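Q: What structure does this chain adopt?
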Amino acid sequence: MTSPNTPTSFKDRIRKSVALIVLLVVSAVLTLIELGHPLELFLRAARNSFQKMPVSGEMVVVGVDDEALSSLGPWPWKHAHMAGLTERLFADGARRVFLMTPLTDQGESRNRLLADSFARYPGRVFVSAKADYRLGPKRVTYILPPDIVRDEAQTVSLVRYVAFWGGFSSIPYKTDVEGQALDSIESVLSGVYGSTQERFPINYAFDSSTVPYTSAADVLSGKARANAFRGKDVVVGFNAPSLGEQMRVLGQGHKSPAATVVVLGAETLKHGRPLQLGW
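A:
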Protein backbone atom coordinates (compact mmCIF):
# COMPACT_ATOMS: atom_id res chain seq x y z
CA MET A 1 0.00 0.00 0.00
CA THR A 2 1.35 3.40 -0.99
CA SER A 3 1.68 5.97 1.71
CA PRO A 4 0.01 9.34 1.05
CA ASN A 5 3.28 10.98 2.19
CA THR A 6 5.45 9.27 -0.45
CA PRO A 7 5.32 12.05 -3.13
CA THR A 8 6.08 14.72 -0.56
CA SER A 9 8.95 12.72 0.87
CA PHE A 10 10.40 12.22 -2.60
CA LYS A 11 10.16 15.95 -3.36
CA ASP A 12 11.80 16.73 -0.01
CA ARG A 13 14.66 14.39 -0.84
CA ILE A 14 15.09 16.08 -4.23
CA ARG A 15 15.13 19.55 -2.66
CA LYS A 16 17.62 18.45 -0.01
CA SER A 17 19.84 16.87 -2.65
CA VAL A 18 19.80 20.01 -4.78
CA ALA A 19 20.55 22.16 -1.73
CA LEU A 20 23.44 19.86 -0.82
CA ILE A 21 24.86 20.07 -4.34
CA VAL A 22 24.61 23.88 -4.29
CA LEU A 23 26.38 24.03 -0.92
CA LEU A 24 29.14 21.72 -2.18
CA VAL A 25 29.64 23.86 -5.30
CA VAL A 26 29.73 27.09 -3.28
CA SER A 27 32.15 25.49 -0.82
CA ALA A 28 34.39 24.34 -3.66
CA VAL A 29 34.40 27.80 -5.25
CA LEU A 30 35.24 29.47 -1.94
CA THR A 31 38.00 26.93 -1.33
CA LEU A 32 39.49 27.64 -4.75
CA ILE A 33 39.35 31.37 -4.06
CA GLU A 34 41.13 30.93 -0.73
CA LEU A 35 43.71 28.66 -2.31
CA GLY A 36 44.18 31.23 -5.04
CA HIS A 37 45.41 33.90 -2.63
CA PRO A 38 48.69 32.15 -1.75
CA LEU A 39 49.19 31.20 -5.41
CA GLU A 40 48.69 34.80 -6.53
CA LEU A 41 51.10 36.01 -3.84
CA PHE A 42 53.68 33.45 -4.96
CA LEU A 43 53.38 34.56 -8.59
CA ARG A 44 53.59 38.25 -7.65
CA ALA A 45 56.64 37.58 -5.48
CA ALA A 46 58.31 35.71 -8.34
CA ARG A 47 57.51 38.53 -10.75
CA ASN A 48 58.93 41.11 -8.34
CA SER A 49 62.21 39.20 -8.00
CA PHE A 50 62.62 39.19 -11.80
CA GLN A 51 61.75 42.88 -12.15
CA LYS A 52 63.70 44.12 -9.10
CA MET A 53 64.82 47.72 -9.45
CA PRO A 54 66.15 50.55 -7.27
CA VAL A 55 64.11 53.53 -6.10
CA SER A 56 64.71 57.04 -7.39
CA GLY A 57 66.38 58.32 -4.22
CA GLU A 58 64.11 61.36 -4.19
CA MET A 59 62.61 60.33 -0.85
CA VAL A 60 64.49 59.57 2.37
CA VAL A 61 63.30 57.71 5.45
CA VAL A 62 64.31 59.01 8.87
CA GLY A 63 63.73 56.38 11.52
CA VAL A 64 62.78 56.61 15.17
CA ASP A 65 64.89 53.53 15.83
CA ASP A 66 66.64 51.91 18.78
CA GLU A 67 69.56 54.32 18.51
CA ALA A 68 67.22 57.30 18.61
CA LEU A 69 65.24 55.88 21.53
CA SER A 70 68.48 55.28 23.40
CA SER A 71 69.50 58.90 22.84
CA LEU A 72 66.21 60.67 23.53
CA GLY A 73 64.29 58.20 25.67
CA PRO A 74 61.23 56.02 25.05
CA TRP A 75 58.32 56.99 22.86
CA PRO A 76 56.29 59.21 23.01
CA TRP A 77 58.85 61.97 22.71
CA LYS A 78 58.20 65.49 23.87
CA HIS A 79 56.99 67.78 21.11
CA ALA A 80 60.19 69.78 21.59
CA HIS A 81 62.14 66.80 20.20
CA MET A 82 59.88 66.54 17.14
CA ALA A 83 60.11 70.29 16.60
CA GLY A 84 63.89 70.06 16.81
CA LEU A 85 63.96 67.16 14.36
CA THR A 86 61.79 69.05 11.89
CA GLU A 87 63.88 72.21 12.19
CA ARG A 88 67.09 70.28 11.65
CA LEU A 89 65.78 68.51 8.55
CA PHE A 90 64.85 71.83 6.93
CA ALA A 91 68.19 73.31 7.96
CA ASP A 92 69.82 70.38 6.14
CA GLY A 93 67.91 71.21 2.97
CA ALA A 94 64.81 68.98 3.09
CA ARG A 95 62.16 69.87 0.52
CA ARG A 96 59.20 68.62 2.59
CA VAL A 97 58.84 66.67 5.84
CA PHE A 98 56.18 63.98 6.37
CA LEU A 99 55.63 62.83 9.95
CA MET A 100 54.12 59.33 10.17
CA THR A 101 54.70 59.21 13.92
CA PRO A 102 51.62 59.96 16.05
CA LEU A 103 51.58 63.45 17.56
CA THR A 104 49.43 63.30 20.67
CA ASP A 105 47.99 66.06 22.82
CA GLN A 106 50.70 67.13 25.29
CA GLY A 107 49.04 70.21 26.69
CA GLU A 108 48.60 73.72 25.38
CA SER A 109 52.19 74.96 25.75
CA ARG A 110 53.85 71.92 24.19
CA ASN A 111 51.28 71.75 21.41
CA ARG A 112 51.86 75.43 20.65
CA LEU A 113 55.64 74.95 20.55
CA LEU A 114 55.26 72.24 17.88
CA ALA A 115 52.69 74.25 15.94
CA ASP A 116 54.94 77.32 15.93
CA SER A 117 57.79 75.21 14.57
CA PHE A 118 55.62 73.92 11.72
CA ALA A 119 54.31 77.42 10.98
CA ARG A 120 57.81 78.49 9.95
CA TYR A 121 57.57 76.19 6.93
CA PRO A 122 54.12 76.77 5.41
CA GLY A 123 52.95 74.04 3.06
CA ARG A 124 56.02 71.90 3.70
CA VAL A 125 55.13 69.95 6.87
CA PHE A 126 52.71 67.04 6.72
CA VAL A 127 51.17 65.19 9.66
CA SER A 128 49.25 61.92 9.53
CA ALA A 129 45.75 60.64 10.19
CA LYS A 130 45.54 56.97 11.17
CA ALA A 131 42.70 54.57 11.94
CA ASP A 132 42.20 52.21 14.87
CA TYR A 133 40.24 49.17 13.67
CA ARG A 134 40.42 47.15 16.87
CA LEU A 135 36.65 47.46 17.42
CA GLY A 136 35.87 46.57 13.81
CA PRO A 137 35.52 48.56 10.56
CA LYS A 138 32.14 49.99 11.58
CA ARG A 139 33.48 51.37 14.85
CA VAL A 140 36.72 52.83 13.58
CA THR A 141 38.48 55.48 15.65
CA TYR A 142 40.65 58.03 13.86
CA ILE A 143 43.92 59.14 15.42
CA LEU A 144 44.77 62.75 14.63
CA PRO A 145 47.21 65.36 15.95
CA PRO A 146 45.81 68.17 18.11
CA ASP A 147 43.86 70.81 16.17
CA ILE A 148 46.41 73.52 16.91
CA VAL A 149 49.13 71.37 15.30
CA ARG A 150 46.99 70.48 12.30
CA ASP A 151 46.23 74.16 11.73
CA GLU A 152 49.92 74.75 10.92
CA ALA A 153 50.49 71.62 8.79
CA GLN A 154 48.91 69.63 6.00
CA THR A 155 47.21 66.37 7.00
CA VAL A 156 47.62 63.22 4.91
CA SER A 157 45.99 59.84 5.27
CA LEU A 158 47.69 56.73 6.59
CA VAL A 159 44.39 54.86 6.72
CA ARG A 160 44.82 51.41 5.15
CA TYR A 161 44.32 47.74 5.93
CA VAL A 162 47.08 45.26 6.61
CA ALA A 163 46.52 42.20 4.39
CA PHE A 164 46.44 38.65 5.77
CA TRP A 165 50.08 38.16 4.70
CA GLY A 166 51.30 41.02 6.90
CA GLY A 167 51.75 43.84 4.40
CA PHE A 168 49.85 46.37 2.29
CA SER A 169 48.32 45.00 -0.91
CA SER A 170 46.67 48.21 -2.09
CA ILE A 171 46.28 51.78 -0.88
CA PRO A 172 43.29 54.15 -1.20
CA TYR A 173 44.19 57.33 -3.05
CA LYS A 174 41.97 59.34 -0.71
CA THR A 175 40.05 58.59 2.51
CA ASP A 176 37.17 60.34 4.27
CA VAL A 177 38.32 61.10 7.81
CA GLU A 178 35.80 62.79 10.10
CA GLY A 179 34.12 64.55 7.20
CA GLN A 180 37.30 65.58 5.40
CA ALA A 181 38.66 63.84 2.30
CA LEU A 182 42.38 63.36 2.90
CA ASP A 183 44.85 62.39 0.20
CA SER A 184 47.10 59.43 0.99
CA ILE A 185 50.67 60.19 1.93
CA GLU A 186 51.76 58.32 -1.22
CA SER A 187 49.60 60.58 -3.41
CA VAL A 188 51.04 63.76 -1.92
CA LEU A 189 54.61 62.45 -2.16
CA SER A 190 54.17 61.50 -5.80
CA GLY A 191 51.75 64.18 -6.98
CA VAL A 192 49.39 61.50 -8.35
CA TYR A 193 45.84 61.71 -7.00
CA GLY A 194 42.57 59.78 -7.18
CA SER A 195 39.14 59.55 -5.58
CA THR A 196 37.95 57.87 -2.39
CA GLN A 197 36.62 54.98 -4.52
CA GLU A 198 40.01 54.27 -6.12
CA ARG A 199 42.92 52.20 -4.87
CA PHE A 200 46.31 51.35 -6.29
CA PRO A 201 48.58 48.32 -5.78
CA ILE A 202 52.12 48.79 -4.51
CA ASN A 203 54.81 47.66 -6.94
CA TYR A 204 57.07 45.57 -4.72
CA ALA A 205 59.58 45.19 -7.53
CA PHE A 206 61.15 48.34 -6.08
CA ASP A 207 64.01 47.19 -3.86
CA SER A 208 63.31 48.35 -0.31
CA SER A 209 67.01 48.12 0.56
CA THR A 210 67.72 50.99 -1.85
CA VAL A 211 65.49 53.46 0.03
CA PRO A 212 67.86 55.98 1.68
CA TYR A 213 67.72 55.76 5.47
CA THR A 214 69.04 57.84 8.38
CA SER A 215 68.47 57.45 12.10
CA ALA A 216 66.70 60.35 13.81
CA ALA A 217 69.54 60.24 16.33
CA ASP A 218 72.06 61.13 13.60
CA VAL A 219 69.86 63.97 12.34
CA LEU A 220 69.55 65.54 15.78
CA SER A 221 73.24 65.09 16.60
CA GLY A 222 74.37 66.54 13.27
CA LYS A 223 76.01 63.27 12.21
CA ALA A 224 73.83 62.71 9.16
CA ARG A 225 75.64 62.45 5.83
CA ALA A 226 76.18 65.80 4.13
CA ASN A 227 73.48 66.60 1.56
CA ALA A 228 71.49 63.52 2.60
CA PHE A 229 68.26 65.54 2.61
CA ARG A 230 68.96 68.42 0.26
CA GLY A 231 66.07 68.86 -2.16
CA LYS A 232 64.41 65.63 -1.03
CA ASP A 233 61.18 64.66 0.68
CA VAL A 234 61.74 63.14 4.13
CA VAL A 235 59.41 60.57 5.67
CA VAL A 236 59.77 60.18 9.44
CA GLY A 237 58.51 56.92 10.94
CA PHE A 238 59.10 54.18 13.48
CA ASN A 239 61.85 51.62 12.97
CA ALA A 240 62.18 49.83 16.30
CA PRO A 241 60.78 46.40 17.26
CA SER A 242 59.24 47.85 20.41
CA LEU A 243 57.23 50.36 18.34
CA GLY A 244 55.87 47.95 15.72
CA GLU A 245 54.96 49.16 12.21
CA GLN A 246 57.16 46.58 10.50
CA MET A 247 55.51 45.44 7.26
CA ARG A 248 56.25 42.45 5.05
CA VAL A 249 57.66 43.38 1.65
CA LEU A 250 56.22 41.01 -0.92
CA GLY A 251 58.88 38.94 -2.68
CA GLN A 252 61.83 40.39 -0.77
CA GLY A 253 61.88 37.96 2.15
CA HIS A 254 61.91 40.45 5.02
CA LYS A 255 60.01 43.15 6.86
CA SER A 256 60.64 46.86 6.49
CA PRO A 257 59.47 49.96 8.37
CA ALA A 258 56.05 51.17 7.28
CA ALA A 259 57.75 54.41 6.19
CA THR A 260 59.86 52.45 3.70
CA VAL A 261 56.74 50.78 2.28
CA VAL A 262 55.17 54.24 1.93
CA VAL A 263 58.14 55.26 -0.20
CA LEU A 264 57.66 52.15 -2.37
CA GLY A 265 54.02 53.16 -2.84
CA ALA A 266 54.99 56.69 -3.82
CA GLU A 267 57.60 55.34 -6.25
CA THR A 268 54.86 53.19 -7.77
CA LEU A 269 52.72 56.27 -8.47
CA LYS A 270 55.68 58.30 -9.73
CA HIS A 271 56.03 55.73 -12.51
CA GLY A 272 52.40 56.26 -13.56
CA ARG A 273 48.98 55.25 -12.26
CA PRO A 274 49.01 51.46 -12.06
CA LEU A 275 46.13 49.47 -13.51
CA GLN A 276 44.69 46.68 -11.39
CA LEU A 277 44.36 44.03 -14.08
CA GLY A 278 45.52 41.04 -12.05
CA TRP A 279 48.80 39.24 -12.41
